[in-house]
Amino acid sequence: VLNSLCFSKLMHNCKNKLEGKTYLIPKYIEYTVSVSEKQMIGQIPYGTVVHGSNSDTITPAIWWTDHDRYRTDIDIHLNGRNGSFGWNSCYRNDSAKVLHSGDMVTADPYASEAFRITLEDDEVYILTACLFCGSNAPFKFMLTDVDFSRTEAPVNVEDALFAPIDMKFNNTRNMSIGFAKGNSFYFYGGELGKRITPDVELNNRALDAMINRVSNMLKLEDFITFSGGRVIRDISEVEDDVEVISLMPNSITASTLFDIID
Known about the structure:
This protein is 18% helix and 31% strand. The chain is α+β, with helices and mostly antiparallel strands. The longest helix is centred in the N-terminal third of the chain and has 17 residues, at 2-18.
């Protein structure tokens, strides 16, 4: 009952602000409603899902440079209920549905790592970035739906589904970025322990908590619609004389999404 009352009040407060407005959100992304900058990965709210737009593959990738003149080694890991992938476990599975690009141990002038992920709908893996050596190192994260079949890092910014996100290890060596499910990626932060590799004993509990939390988050499209606004998925859906507010991921900031509900 309390949730229903809060939701009704929020809709009432935003109705005059959003009524009659048209927003463009691309087909491959479903934003959740922003509630706090602490619950965002860059400009993307926790719970937001990105679907592979052209294939059944999703490819998360990071890249970085040596920080403060010290060798900087950042690793990405995938951990699921039925296995783990990364430098300390497997680089691929038997069916090659998961493939790690390889372990890069220095970044002069730069380095990158990626996973090609092609999962069944019920397969779920948490993506974690870990700082093996270096201190408070920055890095960039992006998603593509580009396939690759060799042990190489296929980082091409032109293939990104959204602008690369600036991230940084702040007094930690372990951070979750989200989880892959099917050919989709859900943004969700946190930590799988404090070590330079994910704590696998925490993995299943974290997966259950993430999936449960995401399933109960309010979608931005629903919020806009309930408040009297309109969401289109392609610019061709709207008349020429209608003003369209773009929420394409390459053009938004955190404040762009907060302004809708504030």
